Amino acid sequence: MERIWQEINRIPLIVMELLLGFALFWLGQLAYQKLFRRMNLNLQLFVRDNPAVAIALVGYYMGIAIALGGVLIQTRSSWQDTLLNLTSYGAFSILLMLAGAWICDFTILRRCDCAREVREEHNVGAGSVEAGCHIANGLILSSALGGEGGNLFVGLVCWLLGLGVLVLVSIVYPRIAAYDVYGEIAKRNNPAAGVAFAGAIIGVANVIRNALVPEFENWTVSFSLYAIALGGGLILLAVIRWLADLILVPGVKISDEIAKQETPNLGVGFIEAFTYIVSSFLVAWAF
């Protein structure tokens, strides 16, 4: 009975956390609208009915939610500490979500001019890639800043290294996919290519998140362990793309279905994205 009353007494705190969470979402969308994409969301979503903006925005919201999970799962000594930590961590996470969005915009997304494609062309593929980058950023932040073994500087270094890996993946992925990924997204408005690429980015980010989970000990030991877990995970993800062709879609090639037919096969794009994301969880559990 005592346990039941303890849970009942937590209800006001849970309600306050939810309200604070929605306030942070509102702040996040305001920052996204005014600082990052510099567009009128109401105009794009409800007048122009732009699905690409909706997809990108939902990915941004998901990234914030995942990043906040890094602090919500930690046990606090009092409700005041919980709310204070959530407020400060939430505001800082939004700043880093914006910083990560800009980094991805100038490194990964610039190759298909994602800002223009999303705003003006209503390009669902570009919106999917942007959403994938936001979710990936949230996944990396959730473990880079969510632990207690290091400090803020260590967390920022881990976050920047994680983003660096994503940039590297954006360079390598077109070679694995065996077609011009950025050309398909920008020139053909290919949603299947965008969805598949987004799945790869999220899958790799989940591997990075898992690699950063162990508590920080020191620069040598911890970063050696991070490198082992991350390297092994990325190698497995590369093998998984080959296995997806062999097992999940036997008799056809994923690259042909996505990029080498008149109407891109969106279903196959989702299958490839699903393969990367689910496999990243298997890799995380294995390590």
Shape: globular
Main structural class: mainly alpha
Biggest sheet character: none
Oligomer: single chain
Report the portion of residues in β strands.
under 5%
| Share of helical residues | over 70%
Number of helices: 13
Secondary-structure element series = HHHHHHHHHHHHH
Termini gap: 39 Å
* Sequence stretches where pLDDT stays below 50 over 5 or more residues: none
Instruction: Average the pLDDT over all residues and give the rounded result.
Output: 85
What is the number of E strands?
Answer: 0
Using only C-alpha atoms, the radius of gyration works out to 20 Å
Secondary structure topology:
Layout: H1 2-9, H2 11-36, H3 41-47, H4 51-72, H5 79-107, H6 114-119, H7 124-144, H8 152-177, H9 181-187, H10 191-211, H11 219-248, H12 254-259, H13 266-286
Helix pairs in contact: 2-4, 2-5, 4-5, 4-7, 5-7, 7-8, 7-10, 8-10, 9-10, 10-11, 10-13, 11-13
Description:
It contains 13 helices and no strands. With 287 residues, the protein is mainly alpha-helical. The longest helix has 30 residues, at 219-248. The chain is globular, with a radius of gyration of 20 Å.
Please name the defining characteristics of this protein.
globular; 287 residues
